[in-house]
Design a protein that fits this description.
Oligomer: heterotrimer
Structural class of chain C: mainly alpha
Number of domains of chain C: 1
Strand order of the largest sheet of chain A: 2-1-5-3-4
CATH class of the largest domain in chain A: Mainly Alpha
Chains: A alpha+beta, B mainly alpha, C mainly alpha
Shape of chain A: elongated
Number of domains of chain A: 2
CATH topology of the largest domain in chain A: Fumarate Reductase Iron-sulfur Protein, Chain B, domain 2
Number of strands of chain A: 7
Number of helices of chain A: 10
Helix content of chain A: 25-40%
Distance between the termini of chain C: 47 Å
Order of helices and strands of chain A: EEHEEHEEEHHHHHHHH
Order of helices and strands of chain C: HHHH
Structural class of chain A: alpha+beta
Largest sheet of chain C: none
Strand content of chain A: 15-25%
CATH architecture of the largest domain in chain A: Orthogonal Bundle
């Protein structure tokens, strides 16, 4: 590479578990360069032992999220010129609020375990003998979750949330939002199971509406809407004596 | 660490306090004019059932509201366990309601 | 270090609500204790109240009224967020809450001096 080529100074978190430190790399500047391009360049040209995670490279799979200059971002769709500081330096770390497997790869197991805890999955109750449930795309319930079902499970909201940081049991924005979409699904059985699951000591009522989830969601979803609705639904259910949860 | 029960207690106590806080703000702005004196304050409150009920309800609601609010803060900032947290919440609620009830009686009973 | 994600208005509104609530909770026992002198020693209560003539104390009182007002108006926003249909104007509402708190506590300060 030419000596006068503009370079980025990139500090990358290296280590596994709770131990680690920053390692600096100089990466040549390219046009239309993304953070994922930077990481891939380091892995291919500077240090093949660098660990990180990605799959689709087009913002669909939700695999490549990291902390970029302290903020959670999907790295495949984050352009360097949007986030690099004026002295052309960058800091890359694994996602906050999750254990580290190695280097930039966070362990997303706790994140997905909470989806299950929140009953944020389909609860089928019909059999093959039943009529297929008709879901009217214009119905208020269905239209209400239009945005929310676009979640790509990238855990950016989970990393952004201070309530997650302070409360290990808190289910987090993504799991609660998914539980809400399941609750609104006309085909779902056992809706009470969903409401019970989001009403426990780590449930939706712990949310302080700080909105970091919505602020950082790369798909511009707003889990606050889902969580506020869950609070309303569970509060009324409790007041009407519908549950002891 | 709030379940739906604690959440409801905190939000309902907040709703109860909406008119009470408005009243308290108005009284403060009214009373501060020309300086504070014990005679002025007690002249208004002593023997008044209205102020006894107003501030009595205020003390009860704020004890519930503040103890649950402080519980969330302490849990998130210190990470102490559920048992310790329950004892702490009850303790804060107890101290606030006892001190509060004492002061309401002090300024309203004749 | 992973610096948390905090550079946005609703996070600041959250922290203002938390800090004002915590400060009010810490102030309340002192408030109750001073008032309870009305029963046991009215003269002592007057002694406390004379402190309120000092400009610095007046300013501290303004601070307390601001804390109460900002917790109140911020709390109204949160109750509306949770119990009324969703509104996209949360940042505007949060800013309005702070403005209203300054209006109320500013009125208090002007009446106090």
């Amino acid at each position: 590479m030419p000596a006068d080529e503009p370079m980025l100074r990139v500090s990358v978190w290296r280590g596994s578990g709770t131990k680690g430190e920053f390692e600096n790399f100089d990466v040549p500047v390219r046009e239309n360069q993304t953070i994922l391009d930077i990481v891939s360049w380091i892995q291919q040209y500077a240090d093949p032992t660098l660990s990180y995670r990605f799959a689709c490279r087009v913002g669909m799979c939700g695999s490549c999220a990291m902390m970029v200059n302290g903020e959670p971002r999907w790295t495949c769709r984050t352009h360097v010129n949007k986030v690099a500081s004026h002295d052309n330096s960058l800091t890359l770390e694994p996602l906050r609020n999750l254990p580290v497997i190695k280097d930039l790869a966070a362990d997303l197991a706790p994140f997905f375990e909470k989806w299950v805890e929140a009953e944020a999955f389909h609860h089928p109750e019909s059999t093959r003998e039943d009529e297929i449930a008709a879901v009217d795309p214009e119905s208020a319930e269905r239209a209400g979750i239009d945005a929310a079902i676009e979640c790509i499970n990238c855990a950016v909201c989970y990393a952004a949330c201070d309530t997650v940081a302070g409360n290990v049991d808190y289910l987090g924005p993504a799991a609660l939002q998914r539980a809400w979409t399941q609750f609104q699904d006309e085909r779902a059985g056992s809706k009470d199971a969903i409401l019970d699951a989001v009403s426990g000591s780590g449930g939706c009522h712990n949310c302080h509406s700080m909105g970091s989830c919505a602020h950082y969601c790369p798909n511009e979803l707003n889990p606050l809407i889902a969580i506020a609705d869950l609070k309303r639904i569970t509060a009324w259910r409790r007041l009407k004596g519908g549950s002891n949860a | 660490m709030l379940d739906v029960r604690l959440y409801l207690a905190q939000r309902i106590s907040a709703l109860i306090m909406v008119p009470l806080v408005l009243g308290h703000l108005a009284v403060m702005i009214y009373a501060i004019q020309g300086g504070l004196s014990a005679a002025e304050i007690l002249g208004r409150t002593k023997g008044s059932f209205f102020w006894f009920a107003f501030y009595g309800l205020f003390v009860l609601a704020v004890s519930v509201h503040a103890s649950i609010g402080v519980r969330a803060i302490v849990h998130e900032w210190t990470g102490i366990g559920k048992r310790a947290l329950d004892i702490f919440t009850l303790g804060v609620g107890f101290i606030l309601s006892v001190l509060g009830a004492w002061s309401v009686m002090a300024v309203t009973l004749t | 270090m992973k610096t948390p994600a905090r550079k946005h208005p609703l996070w600041l509104a959250f922290m203002l609500h938390r800090v004002s609530g915590l400060a009010l909770a810490l102030f309340l026992p002192l408030h109750f204790w001073v008032l309870s002198y009305a029963l046991t020693a009215p003269v002592t209560l007057d002694g406390f109240l004379r402190w309120t003539e000092y400009p610095l104390v007046k300013f501290a009182e303004f601070g307390l009224v601001f804390l109460l007002a900002v917790h109140f108006f911020g709390g109204l926003r949160l109750l509306a967020l949770e119990f009324l249909p969703w509104s996209d104007r949360q940042k505007t509402l949060a800013a309005t809450a702070v403005g209203a708190a300054f209006l109320v506590s500013g009125t208090f300060l002007l009446k106090a001096i």
